[in-house]
Amino acid sequence: MLSLYQKYWRTAFDIALIVFTVWLIMFAFSYLYKIATPVFLSFLIFLCIEPLARRLNKLGIRKAISSGISVLLFTAVLLGALAGIGFMFYHQTSELVEKLPKYQTQVEAQIRSITAEIQQRSDSLPDGLADKLQGAAENIVKFGTKLATNLFNGTVGFVSSFSSFVLNFSIALILAYFLSVEIDMWKRLAGQRSPKTLKTAFTFLRENVFRGIGAYLKSQLKLISITFLVILIALLALQVNNALTIALLAAFFDVLPLLGVSTLFIPWILYLFIVGQTGLAIWLTALLLVVTLTRQFLEPRITGQTVGVSAFTMLAFMMVSLSFFGFAGLILAPILMILLKALYDQGYFHRWIRWPKEEFIVSPFHPSASGTTVPGAPLPPDPSDEARP
Question: pTM of whole model > 0.85?
Answer without folding.
Answer: no
